Amino acid sequence: MLREELAERLGRIWPELRIVTLAANGDEALEALKESLPDVVFLDIRMPGASGLEVARSIDGRCHVVFVTAFDAHAVEAFEAGAVDYILKPFDDERLARAVRRVKARLGQPALPLTALLERLAAQSEPQSHLRWINASQGREVRLITVDEVCYFQSDAKYTRVVTAEGEALIRRSLKDLAEELDPAKFWPIHRATIVNAEAIAGVGRNLSGEMTLRLKHRPERLVVSEAHRKLFRQM
Hints:
Elements: H1 2-13, H2 26-35, E1 40-44, H3 52-58, E2 64-69, H4 73-81, E3 85-88, H5 93-106, H6 115-125, E4 133-138, E5 141-146, E6 150-156, E7 159-164, E8 168-171, H7 175-179, E9 187-191, E10 194-197, E11 201-206, E12 212-216, E13 222-224
Parallel strand pairs: 1-2, 2-3
Antiparallel strand pairs: 4-5, 6-7, 6-10, 7-8, 9-10, 11-12, 12-13
Helix pairs in contact: 2-3, 4-6
């Protein structure tokens, strides 16, 4: 949908532009570029198959490139320092028109190499690798637990308790070390000794002492939320 919208807007803003091809993914883009090399390519950085960065690397210095991106301000600084333009998603006509003016001004000039810029952007765009499973001791056995099964982690002396709907196990790792490998969008610290799986939360309430507590979907116990972490749940 964004690809079609971009093509439609470009047609209005740059009527003399001839769109050679529309590629549904990075692999299609690479194949199309083998057949013909356009003057300018508009590339989404994250596409199925080959990424926009891989496509740009394959044509480095042979044509002008405009990236279409949802990157944050740090990446935008990298674009500003490079020889290409960028359009942030969701894009608007004013920003697109400015990109078109910059591209038109460069069409009579050789495209500058992008190698250094691509290396910087690749480092910023690499998805962070998060912990996916855990080897935990359960009695005399070592059990393989995926992090999706975990309701919460809790510090327990030299160990960390790994609590699932079916029971609990122990791992010889500190909660602090574990937190560095967990996906922060999914696993929330609610106490200096507890990290909860947000998808395991059924509701928020208070106990007789007035402390905020979490009710879990598949566990009977309630987890206490410390004052420092209550802001996570004030909208719930």
